[in-house]
Amino acid sequence: MDAADIILFEKEFDHDHEGAYYTIPFHVDPNAESIRIKYDYQRFGFDQDFGDHSEATLEPEINIIDLGLIAPDGEQIGASGSNKTEIYVSEAMATPGYTPCIIQPGEWEILVGAYKIHPDGVKVFYEVTVAYKERRLLKGDLHTHTFASDGIHSVEELAWKAKRHDLDFIAITDHNQMISRVALPQVEGITLIPGIEWTHYQGHANFLGVDKPFDSCFATNTLEETQNIFKAAHERGALITVNHPYEGGCEFKYDLQSLPFDCLEIWNGPMRESNLKAVGLWQALLSSGKKIPACAGSDYHRDTPFIFLGGPTTCVFADSNGVSDILAALKAGHAYFIFAPDGPELEMKINEDIILGDSVKWSEHDWFEFELTNLLAGDKIRVISGHDSQVVWDAPTNGSFKMTYTMEKPGFARVEVLRAFLPGLPLLPALISNPIYFDPE
Ligand SMILES: [Zn+2]
Ligand SMILES: [Zn+2]
């Protein structure tokens, strides 16, 4: 991260301070992502009399300063005694002994425990680094199962697998089983999103990001009961995705208008007929003027020749790697989807600040730019705007492609890369983006 405040403190403690607790306040502006605290002091003495062999080894520690961190609301975020001289806290990750949390703006406090102070006193040097959020591309998988339902891996195994696949996040979505955030292990570099796949004879939906999206039981027998579950999940802040609407045997049979949801899963596991129909449904909804973000997930249970973690991969432009920022970005449609973690990459924008998922007035902006990288020779690049679809480029060689596309009328525009994955088979999507919307007056 570039944007960071570094705050330095030098504190002096006298022997009289020994045995008491103190705090050092520091200010955090809005939009902070993480806090890192390092501290340093003379812990071990050098001045023992080595003539007497017992003295030097019995009292090596002349000062012991303990550390803790307190949030603006007074909550203890962690306490590490004198065990760690560096700690880190963000929503996605924290040093063991500290709780991962959203970094609220306000007055934070370093907790200082003056456990032992030398008769001459001690100077303690603190370095506090507050890093601020910045939009970045993260890759992940929003639909996975563990052995808690019908998968074969533990959450931890999935997280390590995700790391090996170069993913940044995965959602754990076992059938009708909630997992709370505190039950999720911490694996450095992987954000685990708590979730549940509400799995019902009338359809499947993921509720992501909250520990308990609904009370009582998943089972419902009427539309009204189902509506109550979806409404509860929404009110509690869950991101709701309607899953694999055309998958044989687990189609989504409810009318989409009858339930609140945030995203439509247009790509579930390997690209196939049911997914192409879901893309068609999404396209029809977009063409009717609805702004519904798409989402994707592998529905991973175990490795098979065509099913793997990150197949497809959701690529999201999020302000941090915290669960709340990833889900907010998905809800805003700041995402595109690729067949595998190492698939093509896309940047699609108007100037620097308007990206996929955003809306502009067509009278003010009737164009957008996009750049694709990691293309293969033979890929076809298609822009779908409103009812029209236009192949704008056939990649003659491996590489990248960049263009400015002009919208002839209001509507939306999204990008697809089509690829021949196997000789003789029809072209299939290697990438599908969310649209930029060009609103009429
Ligand atoms: Zn399902
Ligand atoms: Zn599933």
In short:
The chain is mostly beta strands and 441 residues long. It has helices spanning 53-58, 155-164, 223-235, 273-287, 323-331, and strands spanning 4-13, 21-28, 32-40, 64-70, 76-81, 86-90, 106-116, 122-132, 136-141, 169-172, 191-200, 203-208, 239-242, 263-268, 294-297, 313-318, 335-338, 345-350, 354-355, 359-361, 367-375, 380-385, 388-394, 399-406, 411-419, 428-433, 436-439.
How would you characterize the overall build of this protein?
This protein is mostly beta strands. It has three domains: 4-132, Sandwich (Jelly Rolls); 135-342, TIM Barrel, CATH 3.20.20; 346-441, Immunoglobulin-like (Sandwich). It is 12% helix and 40% strand. It is built from five helices and 27 strands. The protein has helices at 53-58, 155-164, 223-235, 273-287, 323-331; strands at 4-13, 21-28, 32-40, 64-70, 76-81, 86-90, 106-116, 122-132, 136-141, 169-172, 191-200, 203-208, 239-242, 263-268, 294-297, 313-318, 335-338, 345-350, 354-355, 359-361, 367-375, 380-385, 388-394, 399-406, 411-419, 428-433, 436-439. It has a 15-stranded mixed sheet that branches. A hairpin with a 3-residue loop joins β18 (345-350) and β19. The longest helix has 15 residues, at 273-287. The protein is elongated and about 80 Å long. Bound molecules: zinc ion (2 copies). One zinc ion is lined by residues 197, 199, 204, 243-244, 250.
